[in-house]
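Self-study notes.
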Amino acid sequence: MSQKKPERNIRVSVVVPAYNEENTIARCLRSLIEQSLPNGDYEIILVDNNCTDNTIKIAKTFPEVIIVQEKTPGVGAARRKGWSIARGDIIASTDADVEVSKHWLKRIVSYLDNHQDTVAISSGYLFYDRDFYINWIVRVFERSLVALSWFLAGGVMALTANNMAVRKSVYDKTTGIDENLKFGEDLNLAKKLHPYGKVKWIFNNRVKTSARRYQDLDLSVVPYFLNFLSMSARDKAWKNQLDNIRK
């Protein structure tokens, strides 16, 4: 009698919320599928947050992707839905307009395996649709913004939702991602995780994302920056609904 092979342990669940991302979703999913971490070690969960374009049609061409729906609008509700069904020991978070490097997940797993006192990690991002000069500015200011957030939050290290990973066993001890937040759900989660262990920022695992929301880093950055400061200092969004610019 042949014995049934045991199911492979899923190390990482990657959760991607999506709302009308037909121009970027293929790029995102392709980069996740082509990870150096063995395919059986991770799952990809795409959360359909009421898409009305071709996002889900495109996503269905990737058979490896698990698609679920969350009808409550907002990134907080969408992420929470995806995280609620995650089976991995680690939950990784990114966005539908992000492209991750080939070793993104392998670096996440390696860091958490080697730092057992760390409950969550995050790293920054650069823009794939902007030039070297703009990305140089982003690199220069990254450390300053991380330090500023840490100071305003009273010693709690920030997380950024398009590039973060959390131990599921610790996440389950908290009240989870706030489904009412449409901005700053990552900073809010960092404060919930902080009592259980270290929340760390690492600088060697950046992702690439679209700069469409920042309009070449002009005054359109201001609302995002004010929300960043408000969530860091008060755990409350300055404005919980920001224009979602798609180009």
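Second protein, same conventions, sequence then structure:
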Amino acid sequence: MSRTPGAHDPLLVEHLPNSDSPAEILLAETMDGLYTPYALRLPKGPGPHPFVYIAYGNGGGGIDWLLDRVHRFRHVTDVLLEAGYACAWARYRTEVDLGYEHGGRLHVETRQGMDLMNRAPLEYEDEVSVLRHVAEHPDIDADRLFHLGVSHAGEMLFKLCSQYGGLLRAGIAAEPASHEVLTLGLAAESTVTSVNGLRDIESLEMRSTELARARITDHTEVSARLDGVDIPVLVIGRDTDELQGIFRLTYELLAEKRADAEWRTWDHDVHGYIYPESDQHGVPQVDGVQSQALEAIVEFLGRHR
């Protein structure tokens, strides 16, 4: 019997040790007719369940990347399942440098009976496709979708909200690399280089919120983008991070728009610390700071559930 790609029958089922909640690898059809994978885990009990989309960093890597996350960074999904949330590690296409800045909104029209776009979809639009797909799953409550993103995926939450409102109940942006959303001019930074039209910002330092604010190049555009954030957002920083000024500025600008914006920050030596890693035996290595942060995340989600 043939299967339709993108149906809610899993492409494959990945079993996890000592768990009766496997990861079902599903394919969501993207806006340009391709497919992007996500690994859905469902909690015990009857649905429909609230759902948390889990993302990290840049795109690419496909199903192999996804399966690695399912096992090596399993702990965050175990925590969410225990709290009663369905959840999924998800993958999306590779980031286009300044694609959001230069591309504008995606417009789709019909030519010769098929779609024509003004630009290719971007990585945050693959997130939109997954959210729309999972919203149709019989065990998911379409009115209670949440987003949890770290680093570039934290910025993606704001990109998504600025152009696709009404999808999410609330969101968490941990260590959000929001330099593009905030129109930060980085050309004068000595640590930023550009080769073949691609910026290298791996060595960027912007620990000061005041410095980050001074780098905004288009306050009107930033304001309009943040006007699109129609949900409560918890922004999480990292005290010693070289981009803490950007993380904090993201919160401060959002708080000027929304009274329900929240800020938490902890001191930790790992970028992406809210996703504890498991050792070679599958045992999660979770310290006190990571436990506190995950408890705060679950508490935030619970207040907006």
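Instructor comment on the second fold: The two ends are 39 Å apart (CA to CA).
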